[in-house]
Backbone:
């Protein structure tokens, strides 16, 4: 088997050997089929087998390294097979076209894609229900501290799969799973106890598929589309706007902070055609952030930056105030 890293270096193909999208035993490159849509390195190449696959598009995969090299460099099939150490045979001698067709058909099984990493929810986490004294404390926090109506808690918990841990590393924390295409990427816990100085706690980077800062909270719900998508900062900002407006075809996604990462821009590209308008809803006084975000997100249709007026941030809106944002 040819040395994959040396081969990529020989043809000046940029690759990474660690990071959010890189599975163990792989190196990653920008997917040549996705092109400009891949703003990071989402095509992984197994350095032991040469099998390769894109995490963005399951059709972009194969087990012949030569096929990938042809796409990247424009080499002939014969030359690509030679430098990849795949040898020669009669089929190759009958012509490059036959081999190219064969290569296209050989690389279409799902087993050829490097398996994405998976994680599980915290072992002490349980769905937030009205069972038990600690669970009731968490519900009281959502009602008294966060302004959700008690009669809505059941639907809120069910829609966003909210959990709560009574012990373990996330003890006394409401836990919000962060998913993409139904796959758990990481999770974030919010303390309901004043004894913890750290209010928000994210799953450690090494234990996550992706870090929180590389994800969009509520991405899967937003991918269903609608009229308006709000881009906000925190989890509770998302919940207020999304939960009280989803019947009005208004959705919301959270950046977790107001610095947009490349991986988040890729996810926003996925949402680009799902909505007519995008509105960045900022806290009071975030003028500098509005200028930066408007520049970074100008690829989104009818993008606007607005400042919240009724509260300090969207998470402090009352349900009645939140519903008014379906009219903007």
Residues:
């Amino acid at each position: 088997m040819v040395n994959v890293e040396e081969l990529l270096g020989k043809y000046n193909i940029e690759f990474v050997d660690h990071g959010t999208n890189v599975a163990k035993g792989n190196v990653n490159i920008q997917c040549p089929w996705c092109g400009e849509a891949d703003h990071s390195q989402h095509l992984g190449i197994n350095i032991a087998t040469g099998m390769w696959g894109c995490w963005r598009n399951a059709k972009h995969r194969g087990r012949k390294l030569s096929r990938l090299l042809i796409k990247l460099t424009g080499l002939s099939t014969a030359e690509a097979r030679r430098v990849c150490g795949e040898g020669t045979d009669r089929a190759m001698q009958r012509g490059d076209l036959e081999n190219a067709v064969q290569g296209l058909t050989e690389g279409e099984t799902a087993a050829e894609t490097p398996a994405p990493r998976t994680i599980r929810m915290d072992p002490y986490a349980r769905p937030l229900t009205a069972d038990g004294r600690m669970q009731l404390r968490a519900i009281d926090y959502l009602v008294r501290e966060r302004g959700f109506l008690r009669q809505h808690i059941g639907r809120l918990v069910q829609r966003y799969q909210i959990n709560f841990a009574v012990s373990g590393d996330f003890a006394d924390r409401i836990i919000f799973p962060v998913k993409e295409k139904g796959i758990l990427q990481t999770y974030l816990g919010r303390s309901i106890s004043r004894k913890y100085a750290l209010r928000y706690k994210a799953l450690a980077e090494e234990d996550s598929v992706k870090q929180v800062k590389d994800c969009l909270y509520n991405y899967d719900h937003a991918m269903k589309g609608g009229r308006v998508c709000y881009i906000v900062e925190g989890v509770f900002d998302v919940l207020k706007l999304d939960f009280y407006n989803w019947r009005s075809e208004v959705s919301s996604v959270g950046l977790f902070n107001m610095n947009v990462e490349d991986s988040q821009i890729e996810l926003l590209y996925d949402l680009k055609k799902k909505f007519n308008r995008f509105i960045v809803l900022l806290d009071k006084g975030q003028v500098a952030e509005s200028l930066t975000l408007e520049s970074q997100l100008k690829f989104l249709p009818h993008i606007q930056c607005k400042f919240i007026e009724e509260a300090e941030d969207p998470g402090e809106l009352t349900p009645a105030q939140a519903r008014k944002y379906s009219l903007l």
